Here is the input.
Amino acid sequence: MSQLLNMESVSVEFATAKGIVQAIRDVSFSIEAGETVCLVGESGSGKTVTSKAVMRLIDDENGSISAGSIRLSGVDIARLPRQALRSLRGKKMAMVFQEPMAAFDPVFTIGRQIVETIVRHDRKTTADKARKRAIDLLQRVGIPEPELRLKMYPNELSGGMLQRAMIAMALSCGPELLIADEPTTALDVTIQAQILQLLQELKSEFNMAILLITHDLGIAAEIADRVVVMYAGEVVEQAATTELFAEPHHPYTQGLLQSITAMDSDRSKRLYTIPGSIPSLSELPSGCRFHPRCPYATEQCAGETPALINREGRQAACWHVDRVVAAARSKPEAPSERSPVPISLSESESARLPAGEPRSSADVLFEVRNLTKHYPYGRSMFPGNRKVIQAVDDVSFTIRRGETFGLVGESGSGKSTLGRVLLRLEKPSSGSVRFEGRELGALSAAELRAERKQMQMIFQDPYGSVDPRWKVGDIIGEPFAVHGGGTAAEKKEAVLELLRLVGLGPSAYDRYPHEFSGGQRQRIGIARAIALRPKFVLADEAVSALDVSVQAQIVNLLQELRQQLDLTFLFIGHGLNVVRYVSDRIGVMYLGKLVEIAPSERLFRQPAHPYTKALIASIPVPLPDQKRRFAAVQGEIPSPASPPSGCRFRTRCPLATDRCALEQPEFREVTPDHAVACHYPAD
Here is the structure.
């Protein structure tokens, strides 16, 4: 293979209101033709800036390459004038963004934008030929009815389909290098598997090199030939994927790998976490930038910056590589694990496992019977003819006191709607929801307001759920103001105790949300949710947007608070490994229906429904020596406005028969405490 991209000692600076900020420093790595290289690291490590530097997109963001060279097929991109750069973008290199709507203009059709890209880079191509190529590309990336999709606008396509369309546009001029920046982060595990499988196939078909940016090490293990690890704007390690996963040479890499929540993570133990958080670029520590969080740190680490040293074909920037390797060989865990959560629990309490066996079925906190939530749309003079979106349809289950009930399924399955209806944030169309035996629908507004003290919520986006103009002390103290009780001094003391409980110091009281990292903001959201000591907490995708290391911190915190405060959780997520780790029982939803409920371990070891099996098979496995073809469920979830007849999963199910199209399967118990809605459940 020949070298396609070579970054040599690249530094990037941005002009800000507070002066010049160096975003990446002395970054060096290369990519061979036909090779896949993954950039990994926490948010703020410099991955995206590095990828944008390759495309010179930083020019539009007050950024500049202050040092080094970026050579693509021998041409130094860092020194190219803008006009020459435009001819390389699209033709020699192309980019797939995390948010596909950022790549498409919402006022033009998908077809017009792909055709325009082709014609711009190939003046000899007519619009008719470009259109035919656009149809071929859409078909190649797995979009059904490509002629019809060409005429659609970006907002008319689902997230997975829009991501495929963006890949088609990126491939339209046959680039040699495809840069993919977190292309699957916002996607469900099934669609993620489809996209990753597609990238692998396209790489072989077009002989492309791929630079993939991700914080999911499972994806890196599945797809990458080599991995480059970045921390606080620097490369700290790079190696072949199998070598890096088998024997990391840098403590940060070691910490990232240990923070992964895997299918076999021991639920009796706390998840490993890297203490602290990534530093601000304006307040970088001296010496090794990782030393404040490193279990191997010495005075040398604090005073001297380690160089990126070559060792037998791999590189690491650490003064103590030998100690790191020796510790890993002698013991699978790092020499010390500092808990980031200063909660006073006894050893027995900290080690306690989320209950493997369910509590008595009589000890029920929530009882849901035939719950339905339909949203009418369109207009009709006759009520019987109104069309509805069937977000939740005839769902029945219970949540037992003190357990964590997990809820999984693709976007559009009805998980979040079900959670909101449980809390009466939305009224059900029909059905019954009982909380501690009381029918919530029968309560008056005043009674429901009082009952809500016992039912709280943790949101996916903590920043979007608070007023950015409020200080943290006011945000956490709001429940006390709403529900009354206590003097101002008592409320402040309670807020300070909550900050301590979630691992934030008293200094957070007078600061604003924007001054905190994503993980810290989530802790603020958790503090507000538990302020009134509720009995039940709904965690709706509470960790899905977090880096793997921060995710582990928040999961540990939730587990400890559950034990200490005797909480009951409904944990909604699409990260199946995390849901498995925290949950006692798990419900699987598909297109508004519950299709399976079982104890956590049993569901993962013996799934009975084909959809559950497909979800589990789509999970990336962080074992590069066991690379596999992604066993993804085909197609996308149908519209809840017009679900299929019979079994709603039948249009994507490999086991479907004529009976599945005609007859809706009954939700029934197949073994004790294990229920499934399928005509042909697995044994």
Notes: The chain is about 30% helix and 25% strand.
